[in-house]
Amino acid sequence: MANDPTKVLAGKWAAVTGSSSGIGRAIAIELAAAGANLIVHGHRHQADAAQLAESLLESGSRAESVSCDLSDPLLTSGFVESCWRIAEVDIWINNAGADVLTGEASAWPFAQKLEMLWKTDVLSTVGLSRDVGQRMKQRASGVILNMGWDQAELGMAGDSGQMFTAAKGAIMAFTRSLAKSLAPEVRVNCLAPGWIRTAWGAAASDDWQERAISESLLGRWGTPEDVARAARFLVSPEADFITGHILPVNGGRP
């Protein structure tokens, strides 16, 4: 396996938060295909995370699933410790995010949605990254990858735009500072997906469908697999001279 050019992550352990579905699930599958062992995380959909870990085991990777409510900052240090008991993690991907666009949360008032986004997306990314980053820096190796949003630096009108630019913009700014704090031992980067066809995108109105396609130079929605391939590159040795970078994955913007 070590000589297989497709297995650029052979022998590495990767933890992917929010990997029970959507983009996180696609990232976990992509990293496993590149040879990595996986720690899969879920909370409300922990059964799906456990099923993914089982399927990765069947495909030849080592895999474990760990449950944690990342909206509770008191639990994040215990979550990191649980992961480290499985293995000293080489690659940490902060993908987990609150879904405030579908289900019962879609009816919440603005302030409640923003609070949930701030806890689950921002505070968990900051807390987990600082804890994981110090462990990696002491070991003198490691990679952290965060999840932003391509419109966070451009702005988008409406309640959703205001909420997500505040949350994802904070993560993107934090990424740049963390990269400076942990260099040169640890690389820290951030993906900034655009219109990705996750559960919300699949059920979006015709107006949103048209907007997503028109705001990509490639004329289509992105897929979780598009994001996963970018993640695989940034955490691999192929990206060894890239840190503090925000990579848009949006098909280009007109």
The oligomerization state is single chain
Distance between the termini: 42 Å
Number of domains: 1
How would you write the strand order of the largest sheet? Answer: 3-2-1-4-5-6-7
E-strand count: 7
The count of helical stretches stands at: 8
Identify the CATH architecture: 3-Layer(aba) Sandwich
State Rg.
17 Å
Shape annotation:
globular
Summarize model confidence as the mean pLDDT. 94
How is this structure best described in words?
This protein is α/β, with parallel strands linked by helices and 254 residues long. It has a single domain (13-244), classed as NAD(P)-binding Rossmann-like Domain (Rossmann fold). It has helices at 22-33, 46-58, 76-86, 110-139, 159-182, 199-203, 206-214, 224-235; strands at 13-16, 37-42, 63-67, 91-94, 143-147, 187-193, 246-249. Helix 1 links the parallel strand 1 (13-16) and strand 2. It is globular, with a radius of gyration of 17 Å. The mean pLDDT is 94.
